Amino acid sequence: MCSGNFAKCLGITLLPLAIICVICNIMLFFPGGKVADESSDITDEVFYLGGILGSGVLMIFPALVFLGLKNNDCCGCCGNESCGKRFAMFSSILFAAAGAVGAGYSVIVSCVAINHGPKCFTHYLNGTVQQTNSTYPFVDGNYLSNRTLWELCDGPGDIVTWHLTLFSILLVTGLVQIGLCAFQVINGLIGTICGDCCGCCGSS
Questions:
Q1: Residue 130's pLDDT is what?
Q2: Taking Cα atoms as reference points, which of 105, 106, 122, 103 lies closest to residue 166?
Q3: In terms of DSSP bridges, do strands 121-122 and 153-155 run parallel, antiparallel, or are they unpaired?
Q4: How many CA atoms lie within 13 A of 120 on its CB side?
Q5: pLDDT score, position 12
Q6: Transmembrane residues, as ranges (predicted)?
Q7: Helices (H), 30-158
Q8: What are the boundaries of each domain within the chain?
Q9: Left if phi > 0, otherwise alpha if psi is -120 to 50, otherwise beta: which for 43?
Q10: What b/e string do you get for 91-113 counting C-beta neighbours within 10 Å, with b at 16 or more?
Q11: Percent of the chain with pLDDT over 90
Q12: Are residues 117 and 31 in contact, defined by beta-carbon separation less than 8 angstroms?
C-alpha cells in the first residue's frame, strides 16, 4: 500500500475516534446521566478536558492532514516530482507526534480519574447521610477490586458505572490513537525517505 493511501486510512480511523472522545468527555459533565446541581458535584478530572482537547481537537488536525496526503501535489517543490510528497510526509510526522501527545494527555487524565474514582454523594456505613456535598469516597482505586464499596455512593444515578465506563473508553481510545499515530510516524519516515511508492506525477 502506498504511504499516502495508508495515511488516508489512518485519518479515516482517527476521525470517529476523536468524535467518540469528545462525546464521552461531554457526557461526563452529566454525572450518572443527570444534570449536576453545582459544578463542584462533577469529578475534577472531567474539567481537564482530556477527551475534548487531548484526544479530540488535537487529534482532528492530524486526521485531516493524513486524509489530505494522498491528494497532495507532489510536483510542486522546485520542479522535483517527489520533493513535495516527501515534504508532506515529513510534516505528517510532526502532526502525528502532536496527536500522540494529545492522546497521551487524555490517557493520563483517564488513568488518574479511574484511580481516584468518581465524586459522589456518600453516607456512613450505618446508612446515615454524611454530607449534602459530594466527596471522593474511594482511595487509590480500591473500588476497582471491591465492588461492595460502590454502595458508598448514593448518586447521582449509577455514578460509579458511569464514571468507570466513560473514562475507560477514553483510556482505550487514547491508547489506540497513540498506536495509530506511531504507525504514521513510521509511515511518514518511509514516505520521506522513499517517497510515495505509487508515484503521483506520472511515473517512470
A1: 52
A2: 106
A3: antiparallel
A4: 28
A5: 93
A6: 12-30, 46-67, 87-108, 159-183
A7: 58-69, 83-116, 142-145
A8: 3-194
A9: beta
A10: ebbebbbbbbebbbbbbbbbbeb
A11: 55
A12: no
Is the confidence at residue 133, as pLDDT, over 80? no
Chain position carrying cell 468507570: 164
Cell 483510556, located at residue: 171
Query: What CA–CA distance (Å, rounded) separates 204 from 197?
Result: 12
More confident residue, 139 or 183: 183
List the grid coordinates of 197.
511508492
The model carries a pTM of 0.84
What are 155-187's pLDDT values in tens digits?
Answer: 888 999 999 999 999 999 999 999 999 999 998
Nearest C-alpha neighbor of 49 from the set 30, 17, 22: 22
From residue 179, give the alpha-carbon distance in Å to each of 108, 158, 175, 186, 201: 15, 32, 6, 11, 31
Q: What is the CA radius of gyration of the chain?
A: 22
DSSP string, 1-59: --HHHHHHHHHHHHHHHHHHHHHHHHHTTSGGGS--SSGGGS-GGGGG-IIIIIIIIHH
Mark residue 146 as left, alpha or beta (left: phi above 0; alpha: psi -120 to 50; beta: remaining). beta
Q: Which residues contact 100 (CB under 8 A, 6 or more apart)?
A: 177, 178, 181, 182, 185
pLDDT beyond 90 at 70? no
